[in-house]
Design goal:
Helix content of chain A: 25-40%
Radius of gyration of chain A: 24 Å
Pfam families (chain B): CbiQ
Strand order of the largest sheet of chain B: 1-2
Radius of gyration of chain B: 23 Å
Distance between the termini of chain A: 76 Å
Number of helices of chain B: 12
GO cellular component, one term (chain B): plasma membrane
Helix content of chain B: 55-70%
Membrane topology (chain B): Multi-pass membrane protein
CATH class of chain A: Mainly Beta
Number of domains of chain B: 2
Largest interface: A-B, 45 and 51 residues
Largest sheet of chain B: 2 strands, antiparallel
Strand content of chain B: under 5%
CATH topology of chain A: Ferric Hydroxamate Uptake Protein, Chain A, domain 1
Order of helices and strands of chain B: HHHEEHHHHHHHHH
Shape of chain A: elongated
Structural class of chain A: alpha+beta
Structural class of chain B: mainly alpha
Oligomer: heterodimer
Strand content of chain A: 15-25%
Number of strands of chain A: 10
InterPro entries (chain B): ABC/ECF_trnsptr_transmembrane
Keywords (chain B): Membrane, Transmembrane, Transmembrane helix
Largest sheet of chain A: 6 strands, mixed
Number of strands of chain B: 2
Order of helices and strands of chain A: EHHHEEHEEEEEEEHH
Amino acid sequence: MLHHKTVVGLRKVGLGSVGGLGPWSGRVSHPFPAPTHPEWPRTVNHQLPSIATKRLHQMRASRAMAAALVGVVALAGMLMSSAGNASASSCSGPLTNGEIRVVLVVDSSDLGGGASATCLVVPAGTTGSQLLARRGSELGTGSPRYGSSGLLCAIDGRPATGCGDKSSSGFGYWAYFFEAGGNWNYGNSNPFTKRLADGAIEGWRFVVGGCGCGQDPTPRIGPSLSLFPALSPALAPAPELPSLPASGSATGTPSGASTGGTTASTALSGGDVTIDPITGATSGVLTSATSAVEPVVVGDVALAASSSTHSTAGRWIGIAAVFGLIAVMAGGAWVQTRRSR
Amino acid sequence: MGADAQVSMTAPRLLHPGAWWLWAVALAACALRTTNPVLLCLIVAVAGWVVVSRRADVPWSRSFASFLRLGMIVIIVRLVFQILFGVRVPGTTLFTIPEVTLPGWAAGVSLGGPVTVESLMAALYQGLRLAAVLACFGAATSLCSPYRMLRALPTVLYEAGVAVTIAFTFAPQAIVSSRQVREARRLRGRSDRGVRAWTASALPVLEGALDRAVALAASMDSRGYGRRGSSSASVRRRSIGLVLLGLVAIAVGSYGLLDPGAPALFRIPALALGAVALLGALVAGGKSSTRTRYRPDPWVAPEWIVSLAGFVAFGSFVIVGRLGDALSPSTNPLEVPAVPFVAVVGLLVGTLPAWFAPHPPTLASTAAPLVVAA
């Protein structure tokens, strides 16, 4: 809707589709998409001709035009990100350019919660922790709680206290998983810096008595692509068509693909990712898409948000009093030192 | 030790070093239990106030300022490391420094990236805590003579004579040494301020301090410190074994207490075993050798007040820790730290030594020699 093409240097992006001025026109040396990901929904395929033509068109566009558009997109992205969730596209509906679909599985069964899978539409370049916060705000379960070290302590207010505490049987902590090859992989990365690719499935499971290692149990909901709501029942599958890897790419760059499940994009080897100007086409197809569940929630999600109501004014008065005391002591100490000299 | 009826409450004298160390260790334990910046600043202020009120006019009494400076360096280093290598913490991004993407096997290490207010505040709190602990030890070092502390150590620890001597006297010796080196530089017309002067004098200071500590240990050794006298070889071996066992058990027990995941056996039981072993070594050693003390430091009312003041402060922190989480304010989400009233009152009790400890003798008075060899 907002923009027609973007060149996103993912390394430089903050939130959303803020574009860096990458060496755009020189980089599009791979006009054809990466090899097929075997598990990707077949609905992808019919889009490709339009991508190819658009890309050719894109290649002919002047550098100045691209730069101007990138600037506009950057501005729009900033506005969007500052406006918070203003661009809350539906997970089954049309996506604007620069948005991705991801599924977040949260399993707090061991804390009395349930296991849930939530499909979310977020700006490309969203990090794992931003995704968690987004989920909390969309489900109304509050934002996740972090420890001062940055360790994730609680999701949906569970557990109410403690943070990755060690007991005699092991650690009780939120283990981080991501989908790779249809299986859960134990995540070794920092959710604050890990950027999500389109179609990514992320999982969090509260592990009781875990070792804090890859042997810890995985979420009870498997990372199946069926967790994504159907986009368009009318789309016919076509064979042999390329799409993007499910998470990460061969270049090590998170591939910031565009609209979920319906389009493909190419991860360029230079570390820049091209987001194709497919918006018009995509929305044209997807306006007909119908899907009921939004967001998909399997099991129950605890609605207990940690309600913290402190009287901040009272705290400031206490702090002022203590620092007044410290100032008196320091002054007295200074006077004493002067006198003794 | 032991009460001495002849000691006046108010006459200038040096307080028993054990009392100062107990007070300082209790304050340091308070600091270790909290990351509340308000309380940490108050701890530093309390320690500084007592030091200024009751320090003697001796070379090492100025070490508090050096420890404060060291604390500032610690805070700065902690912040810089957080910005460069710290774990990336979600929150409000302050600025972003260039990020290096590390390969998969280096997961968990980050180089550069977004720097959030939350991460900086967490780093500041932690640096402040270490700085407060350093200030407490600086207070103990500047309030009592390291030599008198050596003398007051229980006989059992004489076994570890040289190591204990160096451990207790290195910091004060370094302070004395650095003053001498700076004075020497000034006399030669060179600047004693700035980074260059500091780097030029760092090596001589460290070398001098270590030399002094080793020389002190050697001289004490030659005068019989750490000797067992005429005890038989088997008795000596047994007591050495008991001391070793006791020290190891106490070390294990301390770690066990700090680590909530440790098996229960490695906590209180290990500490108790260590204490019993050390006590046994004390008895075994005491039987075989007699030791006389020249002018023993008395332990009377002011000593009790000073050490109890420290314990009251520590107790208040334990109580506050049980009642809520005011001791560890959340940095994510960032919140205004609460000021627990009980802890503040406890820390104010910790300033009582500034009034109840006897004044130290000045150089003019001859009440007590400042440096007493063991």
